[in-house]
Predict the structure.
Amino acid sequence: MKNFRFSIFFGLIASLLLVSCSDNDDNYKSFSGPQEALLFNKSASIFEFTAAAPAFTEVLVSSTTVSNVDRVVPVVVSPFTTATTNMYSIDMSTAVIPAGQTTAKLKINSGSFAALPSDGSAKQLVLVFGSSFYALPNRTNHVVSIQRGCANTKVNLNIAFDPYASEISWLLKNASNTTIASSSPYADGLGSFTTQFCLVPGNYTFIMNDSYGDGIAPGSYNLKLTNGTTLVSGSVFGSTISHPFTIN
């Protein structure tokens, strides 16, 4: 049973709580391990741009140790990435932690606006560390949701996973039952995920799936307007659940 799996996992995760931190907490220097550990300061971000001018976003990448020399951060693109290479470029010259510091600002540049989905959905750029480097649990990857600047209604999807994120998937469908956005595979241990949709007025259905059949427990998900209004929310739902909602 999954509850039994969770009880075993809980003992392990309790020991990691001393060295892990929330998505917005960069106070990781209390970590004391046998070696240098790398981490993404946040697990997800949103990058939107228009056709008017080039743009960029920055992803913070850190080390738990200080060095007296510059260090190149071994960031690579995961095979789980759904964004195509003409949608973005990565300035690897910024993937360097300067001597005496612990953080690098990895610069992601905008690519072709025309290549982005025209329906307002996002494509994911999934960044991970090289396999030979140790990373802090729950900070091993960063998902950049790349999408067009929105002239319609922005809707934020927020997911707080249980320890089994790999079991979760979702779909967003329009009134014609056409899938306009869907999830990429998630890795167990991922703490949270955020992305944003740009939706024209109309009726939609948001579908959450759990391959194990017990939903997110503990955990939660929601769809919210940028003013904080909740359109959809949930947690325990079994194998699948559908949430209809309307954008006016």
Notes: The chain has two domains: 1-149, 152-248. Residues 3-30 have pLDDT under 50 and may be disordered. The radius of gyration is 19 Å.
